[in-house]
Amino acid sequence: MNVTIWNEGIHEELYPKIKEHYPNCIHGTLAEIIGELPQVDNVHIATLEQEGCGLPDEILDKTDVLLWWGHMAHDRVPDELVAKIHHRVLQGMGLMVLHSAHFSKIFIKLMGTSCCLSWKEDTYERLFCVKPSHPIAAGIPSHFELGKEETYGEFFDVPDPDETIFLGWFDSGELFRSGCTWHRGYGKVFYFQPGHETNPTYNHEYIRKIIQNACIWLAPSNTIEYITSPYIEKTLEEIRKTK
After folding, report:
1. Other Cβ atoms within 10 Å of 123 Cβ, number
2. What gap in Å lies between CA 150 and CA 118, rounded to an integer?
3. Phi and psi (nearest 5°) for 163?
4. Which of 85, 178, 183, 238 is the 20 to 30 A CA-CA neighbour of 163?
């Protein structure tokens, strides 16, 4: 499995406190999490400031699972790149959308909605596993305490998920669909809410386990070279009559 981790890489430069939790940046911690998986052969890191946002065709075309973390520079991702990522998902590439990447161009394009939500500053979050039979929930307890996390609340303007695996409850009263999946074309999408940059969220054992499980689940099970509308050369009835 080839995994690519995309991160804006801007917050770490603007807010040095972030490196207290993530000394090698958020993408470095995510790469460490994914690198623990025996199924992963290669982890590539890409950031906004790299040429082509770090996602040239030769990288994107061989990526099996793409993790996306973005927050303050969604508009700087070129539409042409978004179109290529969208096409790769339809072909079978898995996409994991993390935290504030709900506003990324690629997630909005795949969902076809605004992807807006309610939010406020950090409160205390407890995460509930509401679909324990799902592979992404393997090894995760019925609920666990996450601690301080940026508060997200409903209404979350996305299409009804294929599966809602986790619900987040905040002690300020909000409830949020924190872990959801969708199928798009031959590809799969997983959105996971925890991961605000000023909190050590990605150091939490269960968060790391969920990300690992999701990476395995998102890996392509079937792919197609092109998503097209082929002309039917011969009808099924014609084929049947020749047998």
Report:
1. 14
2. 11
3. -145, 135
4. 85
Strand order in the sheet with 94-98: 42-47, 2-7, 65-69, 94-98, 187-192, 175-184, 163-170, 118-129, 143-153
Count of CA atoms in the C-beta half-sphere (13 A) of 163 = 19
How crowded is residue 78: how many other Cβ atoms within 10 Å of its Cβ?
A: 13
Q: What is the mean pLDDT of the chain?
A: 93
Euclidean distance between CA atoms 178 and 185, whole angstroms? 23
List the structure tokens of 83: 């179109």
Q: Is the pLDDT of residue 202 over 90?
A: yes
Residue 138: Cβ within 10 Å count: 14
Q: Are 92 and 222 spatial neighbours (Cβ–Cβ below 8 Å)?
A: yes
Please report, as a single letter, which amino acid is at residue 46.
A
